[in-house]
Amino acid sequence: MSLFHANAGQAEIIRSVQKDQEHIEYVRTALSEVLLLLSQRHWFKYNALCKLIAEILYHHYAIVNNLQTLGEEYTGIIQVDANYVMLPNKALQLLAVLLEYGGEHVADRVLTYVQTEIDRSEELLDSVKDSLHRLIDTLRVVVPYVRGFHTSLFYINGGKYHISKRLTGINYVLIRNWLKEDHSIYGYKVLGYVTLTQLILALAARYRQHRMEAKQKPAVSARSTINRPRSASGSGAETGATRNCALCMDTTQDISVTQCGHLFCWHCILNWLEKRQVCPICREAIKKTRVGKCRISNN
């Protein structure tokens, strides 16, 4: 018998997710404190992974033992398959967890690897390499907007809050159907339309910024060509002090140097290395521990 008539609403699903996140944060904090007690160096290197580990452990325990998560139990919902007939199998549930909490990270690592291989290839033309790099950069920019549109559709129509649930076909049903709050649906529809409007405006602003940057590039290139002889004649310290960071495109602050010899803002390169362990310029593999600060003397 289909349980479609008892499908969970937006309010129940969001409350469940929020409750689960509270418990996941508790586990993450405990893991982080244990890691800090073991070694400050290891904490600096691996603390970012504590949240991912906490999320996988939390959901893995519930799936393996055929239990609801604490959030699902709190709101009275359970997971069912795409046909609203039976519980989803464990493999499908584990796949959904891995896609939700690790899919984006894995996709980013794959894109970084592809970019590295493109740069190393001697068979591809430079024009082809540039086109492929632009395509990969576009894919990275698109991901947050895809999440935003998916969230907007959830607020408007209900159904699946996570993209991973849509890919795996897992649904939620309310096992205490008399607690379903129909009066809250209208408010979520309004929130969905507002979110969708915000995303459209953000995309329009992004497109406008891209057009303006494209128009400014020829002028910047011309100024760089004119100023290059003067820069070459200046002192090495002055050139290093006034150069721009390749990540934030602003004057370099707290100059740091990677093992491959490129200079960046200290906080910019550390934030970059949180996501990908390669140099933004030459794509050489680098580590946080091999990044050092430069001290430029005025003498």
TrEMBL record:
Region (Disordered): 218-239
A single BP term in Gene Ontology: protein import into peroxisome matrix
Name the record gives this protein: RING-type E3 ubiquitin transferase
Its EC number(s): 2.3.2.27
Organism name: Anopheles dirus
UniProt pathway: Protein modification; protein ubiquitination
Family: Belongs to the pex2/pex10/pex12 family.
InterPro entries reported in the protein's UniProt record: PEX2/10, Pex_N, Znf_RING, Znf_RING/FYVE/PHD, Znf_RING_CS
Origin superkingdom: Eukaryota
